[in-house]
Amino acid sequence: MNIVEIRELSFSYSSKQKPVIERLSFSIEKGEIVGILGPSGSGKSTLLRLIAGLEAPVGGSIVISGRTVVDETTFVPPETRGVGMVFQDYALFPHLNAADNIAFGLHRLGKTERSARLREMLELVQLTELVKRYPHELSGGQQQRVALARALAPRPSFLLMDEPFSNLDASLKATIRSELRDILRRAEMTCLLVSHDIQDVEAICHRTVTMQG
Description:
The chain is of the alpha/beta class. The protein has helices at residues 44-52, 98-103, 111-124, 140-152, 170-186, 198-204; strands at 2-11, 21-29, 33-37, 59-64, 67-70, 83-86, 158-162, 191-194, 207-210.
């Protein structure tokens, strides 16, 4: 079953500029982790923004879990697309501790259900001992795990990751890559991961889509 279907997707910042993305089509199956590779300016991050609903395409369509979220006549807003996103800089709230950062997206749940889901996420990313720490008290790898848990907590059908290793020391990368791969597979999460580093993609993803620009 395909969780994501991208059909003839095109995007340009203005009608006078060459398209950043032109008639791109591919699909992602349930539980599949797909890597997007390509040089800077090839449209990798723009593709994630289009899927998340932070930009609107000039043509084509995106279908998530059988529902068209954007085409010529449809635009579903980001908050109702069922898509999680981990940004390059993690975008954690500095004034919230790890637990409150993770629980941020769970405000619609009742207190008991919210506590249970938070506990489940902390166990998944192995941060149970660090719940009270603030982002500045966490290492880069720990911050990344908090950002991942926050994105997974509302049970998105699909996860987007934009250069998730760019802020990590080279010595940490190998460990964090394998941790991330294990977490995503334990969560049975369908994921699209953007990177400029082929080693990131080879370590985590089932297959690769290359964007040439």
